[in-house]
């Protein structure tokens, strides 16, 4: 029998996601110790591996759990690395439906439904996958709905704050590093920080020590953080054009610090902006950006925690 941490290590599925799949879909029924701690057997590990295999190939978590429960897929074969023998129905429609539900919940100030939809999003796959395909698109949809007059400023802020709380919890769950290798934050005046925070979580989940500085960080704040931490890299977020302009002085100042990598990320970190500022441009998707940064840093920089 395995504890939840041991089950996570064997399956590659994090403890929060294991709990979410158990609670929402009933795909696992762990035993309990006398103290109430979950215990998982080898069959449960096989189920976790099968869920992960299906989700990694485009299945939603709800469909994967239903197919496993109904015996429609071969759990042992999937756990051993086999590819699913059928394609799920319409993942795009599922994602669009979740995002629309999130916007509707925000518009009606239904905090319970907002949290419920976020639960479903975060249970749909790995952190990186759901952030890129669900959570960040959902926050973009909030902005679009506000621009069209569908949401009030208060409603948009409340829903965005709910997302920020989830991302902050994920960052905390990734662990506190002993050594800081990367600084991540937004330039002066920039406040659209959810993408940068999600990226910081993805970096931390790769075992890289990251200090998230947050929004609206002045130039001297970046330099002070670089000096005090001895970080080897800094990533400046830029979501809108004003952010990209504000990033210029930050990047120029960071070149005077002992950093081996200075990079930009976000929707406004276009090829033209990166060329003008002579800075490394990271991919737009969180998972790709975190992998690129890891490659830039090299294997020797992944500190123990």
Would you kindly provide a written description of the structure presented here, covering whatever features stand out?
This protein is an alpha/beta fold and 305 residues long. It has 3 domains: 4-79, Multidrug-efflux Transporter Regulator, Chain: A, Domain 2 (Orthogonal Bundle), CATH 1.10.1660.10; 91-172, Methionine synthase domain (Methyltransferase, Methionine Synthase (B12-binding Domains), Chain A, domain 1, Orthogonal Bundle); 177-301, Rossmann fold (3-Layer(aba) Sandwich). 57% of the residues lie in helices and 8% in strands. It has 14 helices and 7 strands. The chain has helices spanning 4-11, 15-25, 42-56, 61-69, 75-79, 91-107, 111-122, 127-147, 153-173, 194-205, 219-229, 241-254, 271-277, 286-297, and strands at residues 31-32, 38-39, 182-185, 210-214, 233-237, 261-265, 280-281. The strands form 2 sheets. It has a 5-stranded parallel β-sheet with strand order 4-3-5-6-7, sandwiched between helices. Helix 3 (42-56) crosses helix 4 (61-69), helix 9 runs parallel beside helix 10 and helix 11 packs across helix 12 (241-254). The longest helix has 21 residues, at 127-147. The two termini are 26 Å apart. Mean pLDDT is 88; it is low at 300-305.
């Amino acid at each position: 029998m395995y504890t939840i941490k041991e089950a996570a290590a064997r399956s590659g599925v994090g403890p929060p996601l294991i709990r979410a799949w158990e609670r929402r879909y009933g795909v696992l029924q762990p035993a309990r110790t006398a103290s109430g701690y979950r215990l998982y057997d080898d069959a449960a590990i096989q189920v976790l591996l099968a869920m992960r295999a299906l989700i990694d190939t485009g299945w939603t978590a709800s469909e994967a759990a239903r197919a496993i429960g109904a015996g429609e897929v071969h759990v042992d074969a999937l756990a051993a690395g086999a590819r699913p023998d059928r394609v799920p129905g319409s993942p795009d429609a599922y994602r669009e439906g979740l995002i629309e539900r999130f916007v509707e919940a925000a518009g009606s100030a239904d905090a319970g439904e907002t949290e419920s939809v976020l639960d479903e999003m975060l249970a749909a796959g790995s952190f990186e996958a759901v952030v890129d395909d669900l959570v960040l698109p959902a926050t973009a949809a909030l902005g679009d709905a506000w621009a069209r007059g569908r949401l009030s400023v208060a409603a948009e802020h409340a829903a965005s704050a709910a997302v920020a709380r989830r991302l902050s919890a994920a960052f905390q769950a990734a662990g506190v590093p002993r050594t800081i290798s990367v600084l991540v934050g937004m330039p002066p005046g920039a406040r659209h920080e959810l993408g940068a925070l999600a990226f910081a979580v993805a970096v931390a989940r790769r075992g890289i020590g990251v200090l998230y500085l947050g929004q609206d960080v002045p130039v001297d704040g970046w330099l002070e953080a670089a000096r005090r931490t001895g970080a080897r890299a800094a990533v400046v977020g830029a979501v809108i054009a004003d952010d990209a302009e504000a990033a210029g002085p930050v990047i120029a100042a960071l070149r005077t610090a002992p950093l081996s990598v200075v990079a930009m990320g976000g929707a406004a970190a276009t090829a033209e902006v990166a060329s003008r500022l002579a800075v490394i441009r990271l991919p737009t998707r969180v998972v790709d950006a975190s992998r690129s940064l890891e490659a830039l840093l090299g294997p020797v920089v992944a500190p123990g925690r």
